[in-house]
Amino acid sequence: MIKYTADEQHIATLTLNRDDKRNAFSGELAKQILMCFADAESNGVRVLILRANPGVKVWCAGHDLAELDLAKLDTENAIIEVAKKIQSVPFPVIAMVEGSVHGGGLLLLLSADSVIAAENAEVAITSNKLGIPLSLELHAYWLRVMGLHKAKELLFTAATITALDAYHAGLYNHVVEQGRLEQVTNEIALRIIECSPAAVANSKYQLNLLAQQSSLGELDAVDVRERGADILNSDDTRSRIERLLASLRRPGI
Question: Which of 120, 134, 179, 201 is most buried, most CB within 10 Å of its CB?
Answer without folding.
Answer: 134
